[in-house]
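Morning. Coffee machine broken again, so started the prediction first thing and wrote up yesterday's gels while waiting. Chain of 259 residues, entered below exactly as on the submission form.
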Amino acid sequence: MRILKDKRGSAISITTLLVLVLVLGVATLGVLVRQNSRVAEELDLNSIQKIKVMEKQSEYLIKNVAESMAVESYAEIVDTKGYVWEDCEVKNGIVVFCSLNKEIDSKFKDVFKTKLVESFPDEFLVSRESLNVIVNSGKVDVKAFFEVSEFQKNSENYQKFSISEVSKIENLIVNYLWKEENSFSFNELGLDYFDEIYRGVEKCRDEESLAEGMKECLKLDNFEVVVSKTNDDFLVKLESKKKFVLGNEYKSLSFSFLI
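Came back before lunch.
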């Protein structure tokens, strides 16, 4: 009888031990699951926060930096005399504005795209091919497509997502592509575009024989015009009314040509 009681007591003890082990295992598993869930959630929040920061940066790049790069591109074309056609003569270092560069829009777009892409931080995967620039009638339209480099890309269609639409997939990899756009005119920047200057030159070229008359004829919205007579030509000096940051200096943009 005593032996039977001992066996019953042992069975109860073993059962109790197994229940305790099971409960402890379930509790431990629950803690691990909650910890893993918190880690996953934290990683995902960090990813979304980074995207939000980069989205703000890209907006600043296209809204502000792009306009500064447009001014720098304009200045570079002036310095290289790229606004005149290749057949125009240069006298004593001053170009004769005999004809407008027939590819001035393409010239500006090429210089502008290079400068703008170079201004992007390394974490942005933006190439010249993914930067769409249209120059027409003194207006610039810029559209840039961005993607976050460490996230997987699974769509060939570029479209802008709100942060709420960022979706989690396996291993917490997130697909995120977006675009930024901006449109501005050279007049808004404080500059007259090259074709507008050339139209003024053509209008006044044969109408005036005196420097003062040429100055009165050649009116530009954003440049002060100074005209003097040389041996056979008029020397025209243009100086922007607005000042810009150019070459680490805050100054007017100025250039000269002969007509």
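The CA atoms of residues 97 and 259 lie 6 Å apart. Going to sketch it on the whiteboard this afternoon.
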